[in-house]
Structures are given as C-alpha cells and as structure tokens.
Amino acid sequence: MSERINLSLEQVYDLALRALIHNGMAEEHARAIADVITQGQRDECHSHGLYRVLVCVRSLRSGKVDPAALPTVSQPAPSIIKVDAHHAYSLLAFQTGLPVLVEQARRQGVAALVIRNCFHFSALWPEVEAIAAHGLVGLAMTPSHAWVAPEGGSKGVFGTNPLAFAWPRPQGEPFVFDFATSAIARGDIELHARQQKPIPLGWGVDVDGVPSTDAQAVLAGAMQTFGGHKGSALAAMIELLAGALIGDMTSAQSLAFDDGAGATPCHGELLLAFDPRRFLGDDLALGQERAEQLFSAITDQGARLPSQRRFAARQRSRSEGVWVEQALLQDIESLLV
C-alpha cells in the first residue's frame, strides 16, 4: 500500500489546475474541471477525484479534445436549452447552460439542458446538486463508451451510463443519488488494475465472456450491468434519451469515434430540471412535507439515504483535508515537469 499524503482542498484544486494548464488546457476549462475534481476528492469518490487529472491529460495528449473551444448556447424551444461544447470538455458547457436551465425551469415548470459534442469524465452528482441548490429537482444522464455487455451478452454495447437525481430539501443537504447502470464505475476497475487488486465477481467478464476477478482482464473484456436485465434496460433507456433523442452519439458510436486514441468518451448529456413551486403552487409545503415523511420512514428504521457517506466525508474533508496516495501525487507531479 502506497503511503498517503494529507492535502487541503485548496491544495487539491491548485494541483489539478496547474497540471491541466501546464498540459495545454485553457484556463476557463481548467478551472471548471479542477473544481469538479476537488469535489470528487472532497467526497472521497477517489475514482472521480485527483485520479481524473491523469485521465484528462491523457485525453488532451490524444489530440481528440479541443482544450480551448468555448461552448455556444441555442434555444430551439422555450423549455429546451442546447449547448454545443465543440469537442471540448463538458463541465464549462454545463456551467454556461445552467443559468438558462434554471431560468426556463422557473418559467415553464420543467426544462431540459442538452449538452452535445462534449468529452465527459466526471460524476453527475455535482451537476444535479448544482440544480438542487436553486431549489429545483434535477435529473441527469449520459452514455459513455461501449464497455458494458447487455444482460445475457458478453460484448460491450452500453456505456457505464450513469443516472443521477437530486431533490432539494428545506434543511440540510439534498436527497441525491448517482450511480452507473454498470455494476461499478469503470474508474473503480481502473483503480483496482492500477493497484493490482482483484475485483469482485459480477463486475465483468474477460474477452471470452467468462466472469473474472482480474481487473485487467475485465478492462480488456466487458463490464456487466447492475441488477441483470433491469440495469440493462435502464442502460438502453439512457442510450436513447441521452444519445439518439438529443442528436448525439451512442456509446458504440463514441467508442468508434475514439478509434483507439484512449481519450475520455465523447458524446452528449441530458439534464432535466423541475420547479416544485410551479408543479405544486399553494401545495408546495404539503409536497415538501410528504417528501420529508418518506425520508424519515427510511432513516427511522436504521436505513441510510443515498449520498450520506459522501456528505459525511464532505464535512470531514473540509475540516481535516483529504488523504491521497503518494504514488498518485507523484504521477500528477510528473505531468508538471
């Protein structure tokens, strides 16, 4: 086990920012990406924290990602906001489109933010939490690369295809979940491979379709969906809604577009925002009370709400900093030479 080093959140952000800019990322993009990387490290989502600096730089060096293209916004309908990332990373595109999404959700009751032609590497919970911070209900989904076999198959068709949801609460953190429709996020398998650790059965199969605990073998073969046919159906839904419906690539098309470059997946993203005030009107307080009764029915019997572990880590990291593997820090620092 590598030695671990304690860093403040400011140090995490600064390290990510410097590494990205040093390797050619435009400052506006680098700041947006470093902010989300810091959030991942803060919440102890290690596969989406500082490790992603290595992924971003590898993608930059592939020549696929535009490091400086600025997103452009269009609005084909009052409730549909489109942001074209022009083959840059998605996070600045999200920051650009969010104010318009919030404004239209408040006017229309519901609005959709479509991000197209973007390279997407991050978790979705920072985005739905950003929507919830405006008092709106958020839903987000995106395909990736065709790494995941459908239930009953052995060849990649789907991406990890995450789905995230956030419900704002009157007090405290929102109710949030964010999960891949694959059995695990691909970044977690990559971390196991990096650390030469076995993975649990059920995460994936090797190139012959045989279930494996070898992380490298699964990376070369195919991942599996969670929940069998249920996860497989959800993954297909996300391919349709966040691919075909928005005029962007499916996971299979994204993988073909990469053509062996090894870059972050290029595709689209769909985010929806719902305004409880417009849906509920004078019954807003009643709707909020019903939601809180639901949450209490869960927690009062000893069960936990999704993201409670993350929120606890968030509080801890703010006061104590974060612990990062020394080997990872050395790899990032080597990018600054």
Q: How many structural domains?
A: 2
Quaternary structure of the protein: single chain
Global morphology: globular
Report the average pLDDT across residues. 96
Q: What distance lies between the first and last C-alpha atoms, to the nearest angstrom?
A: 26 Å
Structural class by sheet pairing and helices: alpha+beta
One letter per element, helices H and strands E, the order comes to EHHHEEHEHEEEHEHEHHEHHHEH
- Tell me, what is the CATH class of the largest domain? Alpha Beta
Structural write-up:
It contains 13 helices and eleven strands. With 337 residues, it is of the alpha+beta class. The protein has two domains: 1-62 and 307-337, Orthogonal Bundle (Hypothetical Oxidoreductase Yiak, Chain: A, domain 1); 70-182 and 225-305, Ribosomal Protein S8, Chain: A, domain 1 (2-Layer Sandwich), CATH 3.30.1370.60. Strands 2-3-4-10-5-6-7 form a seven-stranded mixed β-sheet, sandwiched between helices. Strand 6 and strand 7 form a beta hairpin. The longest helix is centred in the first third of the chain and has 19 residues, at 90-108.
Describe the protein's topology.
Layout: E1 4-7, H1 9-22, H2 27-42, H3 51-62, E2 72-77, E3 80-89, H4 90-108, E4 110-119, H5 125-132, E5 137-141, E6 163-167, E7 175-179, H6 186-194, E8 204-205, H7 215-220, E9 222-223, H8 229-244, H9 251-258, E10 266-274, H10 276-280, H11 284-299, H12 308-320, E11 322-325, H13 326-334
Parallel strand pairs: 3-4
Antiparallel strand pairs: 1-11, 2-3, 4-10, 5-6, 5-10, 6-7, 8-9
